Amino acid sequence: MKRIGTRQADYSVRWRLLLASATMLFVELALIRWAGANVVHLSYFSNFILLGSFLGIGIGFLIPAARGQWLTRWAPVPLALLVIFVREFPVQVRQSSGQVIYFTAVKTTGFPEWVTLPAIFLLTAVIMAAIGKITADLFRRLPSLDAYRYDLLGSITGSVCFAVVSWLRAPSVVWGVLAAAGLLILGGRRNTLRYGVPLTAMVAALFVETTTAGVSWSPYYKIQLTPVTSVAGGYRISANGVPHQSIAPLRELMRKNSPYRQPYDRTPGNPHKRVLVIGAGNGNDVAVALAHGAQRVDAVEIDPRLQQIGAQLHPAKPYDDSRVHVHITDGRAFLERTNARYDLVVLALPDSLTLVAGASNLRLESYLFTQQAFEAARDHLAPHGAFAMYNYYRTSWLVDRLAGSLDDIYGHALCMTTFGKNAAVLVAGMTTADQSCRQIWQPSGAVPEAASDDHPFPYLLHRDIPTLYLGALGAILLVTLLATRLTGVRFRSTVHYTDMFLMGAAFMLLETKNVIGFALYFGTTWLVNALVFIGVLLAVLAAVEVRRRLRRVNQLLLQLLLFGTLAVAWLVPAHTVLSLPFTGRLAAAIALAFAPIFCANLIFSDRLALAADPTSAFGANLLGALTGGALEYLALVTGYQALLLVVALLYLGACVAMRVAGRGPGAQAPPVPDETVALNRP
Question: What pLDDT was estimated at residue 92?
Answer without folding.
Answer: 59
